[in-house]
Design goal:
alpha+beta, 5-stranded antiparallel sheet, 3-stranded antiparallel sheet, globular
Length: 208
């Protein structure tokens, strides 16, 4: 249905030297590894592909996929278009439309189901004042509530975010708000995406 992810390119754990020697082998399919090997911007492309996989997997989970995250089994087919990448990412045989923006030192991916019209999706990226884990989580939630308030035309104090299994759920006046929400944070950045007039599905089988 909908998913988002963000990578802070300046975070120490994003540095190539910080990666496990077998990270690429575990994270990417052979065609993706070949693309990375031939890219003059390998360090940045690595996180473009990773964020696209994360966002698409979250979208698949919102569609009811009950499976762990196996990044090498998630297939990316992305083409560059200026300062962004666009294309399709396949998760457990289902294709999701993905757009990855490169902005301000961050990689921000938003994935949506092919049947979900792009105009029904709103997304936002924000640089945080502090990036301790508690501040990152709070920042992502605050960003999501502001985004939801504008998209739904509801006062922010009527909205809150609860947990529905592993996913965030947007509530309005204590009831489901009729929207699918996805949150992400990493390093200095928080991201949120919202699909209005949608709801997450129940569990379905998938890759194991």
């Amino acid at each position: 249905m909908l998913g988002t992810d963000v990578v802070d390119l300046a975070d120490p754990e994003s540095a190539e030297a910080a990666l496990h020697p077998r990270f690429d082998a575990r994270a990417f399919a052979p065609a993706e590894r070949a693309r990375l090997a031939g890219s003059p911007e390998r360090a940045r492309l690595r996180w473009v592909l990773w964020a696209a996989k994360e966002a698409a997997w979250k979208a698949a989970c919102a569609d009811g996929l009950a499976a762990p995250f196996h990044p090498a089994a998630i297939e990316t087919r992305l083409a560059r278009a200026g300062a962004r990448f666009e294309g399709e990412v396949g998760v457990s045989g289902v294709g999701y439309r993905v757009r990855v923006e490169l902005a301000g030192g961050a990689v921000h991916a938003v994935a949506r189901a092919a049947a979900l019209a792009p105009e029904r999706v709103v997304a936002s990226l924000e640089r945080l004042a502090a990036h301790l884990p508690a501040a990152q989580s709070a920042g992502a939630r605050a960003l999501a509530l502001e985004l939801a308030s504008r998209a739904l035309g509801a006062a922010r104090e009527r909205l809150r975010i609860a947990r529905a299994g592993r996913r965030p759920q947007l509530l309005c006046d204590g009831a489901p708000a009729g929207a699918v929400l996805s949150l992400a944070h990493h390093g200095r950045f928080a991201a949120a995406a919202l699909a209005v007039g949608e709801r997450a599905a129940g569990p379905r089988a998938g890759l194991r």
